[in-house]
Write a structure and sequence with these properties.
Elements: H1 3-12, E1 29-39, H2 50-66, E2 70-75, E3 82-88, H3 92-100, H4 103-106, E4 110-120, H5 125-133, E5 141-151, H6 160-175, E6 179-184, E7 193-197, H7 201-209, H8 212-215, E8 219-229
Antiparallel strand pairs: 1-3, 1-4, 2-3, 5-7, 5-8, 6-7
Length: about 240
């Protein structure tokens, strides 16, 4: 198998539910852990306040970032059950333990689902350099559009022509300047992958819904505004084509 063919096979797992890729991480990509923070049903523990609990939660995220485990994080800006998205890198067991100790999760105010994910290299690297050069400076925040790609239950796997059409569509969205990064979840389940756009929400809805996997009934899309520091998402994302 050529390098281009292997890379294409790894990326198209984004649209093939119930398949775990065994391919090596291709050039230009890295393996991460996505953390989807969901609304919980727990109450504020006795002896504290909601504000104090939130401050402790943010302090835990800061500690994860300081220790090199957290490379991207930000709140979701709508009123649904998804409250935030984290992108972490490192030992999975360590990540699980550290995240489980988050005060909001321990109190049941938030729940988190951790999923192995493949995305572009250097997520958060530019932000880390900026933060080191500007200690104490306020983050420059930007609202991106996060699209979760959900597999349609019992849908047939995509054919090779459908997979190619999907990659070509992604390439067009990148070249238009709207799609900033994307990648597959590397285990079967209710999430196949994500897109991150910088575009008007209505335009993102149109772009995401035009994906061949969606048009062909293999995937559905779920869009959320995601507030992240400007320097976190790396530039130069490229979709490899065979």
């Amino acid at each position: 198998m050529t390098r281009h063919a292997a890379l294409t096979l790894a990326l198209v797992t984004l649209f093939v539910p119930a398949i775990v890729t065994t391919q090596p991480t291709p050039p230009g990509f890295d393996t991460y852990v996505l953390g989807l923070m969901m609304r919980g049903t727990g109450e504020v523990p006795a002896g504290t306040t909601a504000d104090a609990l939130q401050k402790a939660h943010l302090a835990n995220l800061t500690a994860l970032w300081t220790d090199g485990l957290l490379v991207a994080s930000g709140p979701i800006g709508d009123a649904g059950d998804l409250r935030g998205l984290l992108i972490l890198r490192g030992d999975r067991t360590t990540i699980e333990q550290r995240v489980a100790n988050d005060p909001m999760i321990k109190a049941g105010r938030l729940k988190i689902a951790l999923k192995p994910w493949m995305g572009p290299t250097a997520i958060g690297a530019e932000y880390k350099r900026w933060a080191a050069a500007n200690p104490g400076a306020a983050d420059k925040m930007h609202t991106y559009q996060l699209v979760l790609l959900r597999p349609v239950p019992q849908a047939a796997p995509m054919t090779p022509p459908e997979q190619l059409a999907h990659l070509q569509n992604m390439d067009a969205m990148v070249k238009s300047g709207h799609l900033l990064m994307a990648g597959p979840v590397l285990e079967p389940g209710d999430l196949a992958g994500i897109f991150v756009f910088d575009a008007d929400p209505a335009q993102v809805e149109k772009l995401a819904s035009s994906d061949p996997a969606v048009v062909g009934g293999k995937m559905t899309v779920e869009r959320h505004p995601w507030l992240v520091a400007e320097q976190v998402i790396p530039k130069g994302f490229k979709v490899p084509l065979p």
